[in-house]
Amino acid sequence: MAVGCVIELASRVASGELKNGFAIVRPPGHHAEESTAMGFCFFNSIAITAKYLRDKLNIGKILIVDLDVHHGNGTQQAFYADPSILYVSLHRYDEGNFFPGSGAPNEVGSGLGEGYNINIAWTGGLDPPMGDVEYLTAFRTVIMPAANEFDPEIVLVSAGFDAVEGHDPPLGGYKVTAKCFGHLTKQLLKLADGRVVLALEGGHDLTAICDASEACINALLGNELEPLPEDIVHQIPNTNAIASLKKTTEIQSKYWKSVEPYSVPVDCALAETQKREREETETVSAMASLSVDVEQCFPQGGSRAAGEPMEEEPAL
Q: Which helix (H) or strand (E) element contains residue 3?
């Protein structure tokens, strides 16, 4: 039933019948491997849906973003050698000591699929736990640059909410807010002309699941999102997050031009990065305006209209 729901929703989004959607299904699926059920997962809804879109609807490039606090080992396995599907996961890893133990940063794919598997593997346990700043920074420095470069035709999201605050340490222990997931979804809507499909994955706290789902649905509907607290904008990622992101960018820069090690400093405040991006945009706009002004300064007789050929000098 869960697999069928996700396939039906994704097919309608891919065909243009729907703009986007959220399949609120159970059980989850991203741990299920081809011949093995594990982690409450029996059939991998997202992986099966991606294969259906690829094989039956001839969709050439599919992005899968896994937001669950646990690594989606089943989804990674399904597409590890497939260059038509970019799998990106950000998850608690702790050097392989957190379930399921897979998802190391150097697991990048194999064969033709090398480089099409990105793991942002958080390490350092819960000292301190990852939160909004760390997740937003991961999106800004790794996920969105690589996703834009990949240029997918549709985005599938394993929407696990066990990174949301309220989960005990053995189940996650992170402090990402529900509203942050709405902002992450809003960023993904900039891809694939907004063709984004979410499927519910992990989550063991009903309030956290409800609040995060509501935030994501508001983003899908285009509603104005509750802004993030001002202090979040001015914080820098914690030391463990910086180390994890630097390791990921160093590895992935070999495959993605847009993911350059330290090209967008990971260890700077979000507000500073946003300020620099605004200044760069203003500089480009000013230069474009200056160029127009210079062209307008030429005398009428000394300029030519657009499309008018230049006079050729006589050949000697």
A: helix 2-15
Contacts of 237 (CB under 8 A, 6+ apart): 133, 134, 137, 245, 266, 267
Cβ pair 273, 264 in contact under 8 A: yes
Out of 30, 31, 91, 167, pick the active-site residue: 31
HSE-CB at 65 with a 13 A cutoff on CA atoms is 26
- In single-letter form, the type of residue at position 106 comes to N
Is-contact 5 27, C-beta < 8 A? no
Q: Count of CB atoms within 10 A of residue 95's CB?
A: 11
31 has catalytic annotation? yes
Angle at the Cα of 88 (from 105 to 197), degrees rounded to 5?
A: 165
How far, in Å, are 55, 64, 83, 117, 210 from residue 111 at the CA level? Answer: 20, 19, 9, 12, 40
In the numeric block, the tokens 């549709």 are attached to: 154
CB 145 within 8 Å of CB 259? yes
**DSSP E strands, the chain:** 21-23, 62-66, 85-92, 117-122, 154-159, 196-200
- The HSE-up count of residue 172 (CA atoms within 13 Å, CB side) is 25
As a whole number of angstroms, the distance between CA 151 and CA 258 comes to 12
pLDDT tens digits, one per residue of 83-137: 999 999 999 999 999 999 999 999 999 999 999 999 999 999 999 999 999 999 9
d(CA 162, CA 67): 9
Q: How far apart are CA 122 and CA 242, in angstroms?
A: 9
Joined together, the tokens standing for residue 285 give: 């706009």
pLDDT tens-digit readout, 206-263: 999 999 999 999 999 999 999 988 888 778 899 999 999 999 999 999 999 999 774 4
Q: What is the pTM of this model?
A: 0.83
The answer to whether residues 86 and 64 touch, using CB atoms and an 8 Å cutoff, is: yes
